[in-house]
Amino acid sequence: MRRLFLAIALCFGSALSAPAQEMQQILQIHADEVSKPSRKSVGALLEDLSASGLPQVTEFLEEWAARNVWKRDDGVFFIATAQGDELSLRDIDTGDQTTAAKSGFTNLKPNGGVRRVIGTALVQFQLEDPDLNRRETAVVSIARRPDASQLAPLLASIDGEPDAALKARKTQLANFLTARFGETPEARIAAIESLSEDTSVEARSVLNQILTATPGVATTTPEGNIARILDPGQAPDAFYDLLVEAQLAPQLTPPSVIRAALEDNIQDGLVGGIPLVQLSSNASRERAYAQLSSDGIVPPLVTAATRDTALSLHVFYELYAEDDPTITDAAQTALASVEQRVGVAQTVDLALDGLSLASIYFLAAIGLAITFGVMGVINMAHGEFIMMGAYTGYVVQLFIPDYTISILVALPLAFAVTFGAGVAMERLVIRHLYHRPLETLLATFGISVALQQLAKNIFGTQARPLTSPDWLDGAWVFSDVIQVSYIRIAIFVLALIFLTLIVFVLKRTRLGLEVRAVTQNPGMAASMGINPDRINMLTFGLGSGIAGIAGVAIGLYAKVTSEMGSEYIVQSFMTVVVGGVGNVWGTLAGASMIGFLQKGIEWLNPSNTLAAQTYMILFIILFIQFRPKGIVAPKGRAAAD
Q: What pLDDT is recorded for position 630?
């Protein structure tokens, strides 16, 4: 069979000097093979089709495998599809279409084995088909079911491949096949060594297939390419089961069998010559059973001691399916190198995930850091400002279908909406509760519940979509291990922009100067003509507006619901407290610490994210015990409070 496919590959690409034949003529010569094919007889037909060089060969094989070839009563073959009692016929050579009654035709239905042979041969034809889609389909088919017969035609098709991407894929796939099915050990080892830098799943799969080993047991160490000698002492029962399966040892006699045998052979208060009153221990029951066994009444007794003796008399091993040890040694070395690279890549990927999560927490917490740090207000409704920003983005998309424009409009609009809501909240509620933290906490918690219910009344309880633009779809793929979604990259960039803007506002503008003055000494700031009441109002509005923008960013990948803010309020407070109250750089440090810590714990315990969050909170509690003022200690009024 392999010689057949090599012949197909060698003959397909070149024009022959023999007179041109029509496809129908070739099929008539092999009419029996077409009508009633078998895996053995179909080879001659495939060889002649390959040698013909006819362009319609590929299509015919596809239709034949799909059972769309029909034979007319006079022996002529057609490609046809049934339409009720009629057939829509297509001439195999000219492609002319006609219709005819189904009664004069027979549908040819090759069995599964023949279709597999046709499919394998079809791949060889498709590799050099003028149609790019067919060539790509052939490569996908080879990758899905690699076989030694596919290596030669795949190599032959590489040089003439006009598409650069497909040529690279063919080269990579040929390297995989050479590593497994190369004709010489030298060629295989060279291909295996080239895989030592390939961290793809396919490359690792190829190496693992080369290193496939099967367990075995023998009385002496067998010949062959031994992968490893196993120690039966680590799991004696499991290894003894291998002996039993290999019929090299009898099964252990379980206590239930011993007890049943003793009960069935009680005579005059004795069993095996031992009084019943003495059968209170396992050792005495085994002695009685052994006596019955020596009398030929019950099968032989097989105990743990028998098991251990049998294990010591046998060798347990794993034998490579690959006979050549030089090839398996090269595969082991390459796989060790790949696993090391994969470990490094996983570390980088985990760090990128932590950085992405830190960006999200920073956006969610920076507004809270401003209000909590400057004003000392515990705003439990901060999460609802995030929710309001997300819903603002959703409403904008209802009116602006272009997602890119809608996001650009939603960001400033969300800031305006939540800025106004924050100012209103400060003027109506917060200003009356300064220096009363418990009342502030209860009031803002009540406002958060009211805002959630208001959102449910307006938008319902179902999640609403906040669709990202097409250019944010997908991910930036570095390798099979490292990839970052474009949305998270955009959120990271947005976090950097906000960090720059906030630092600029606080350090380079009059508002920032007044905010810092009020933060450090509100009495002195008031004596210098600064209105602390106005600064508190603007500061609270600024923090709320930033939360609204964060809501738009978070809503691009998270569900937009009335409860979405509550999912970030705890992390936001932890970020602010751990980083240092009222400090932008402290918030950045806190977000980074919590983001990386959470991803690290999730990596250690991936099956339980709730437990990971619990461990993270416990760690933060311990951290605050040793550094109660956070990573970056606050100054001014926040420090005094």
A: 73
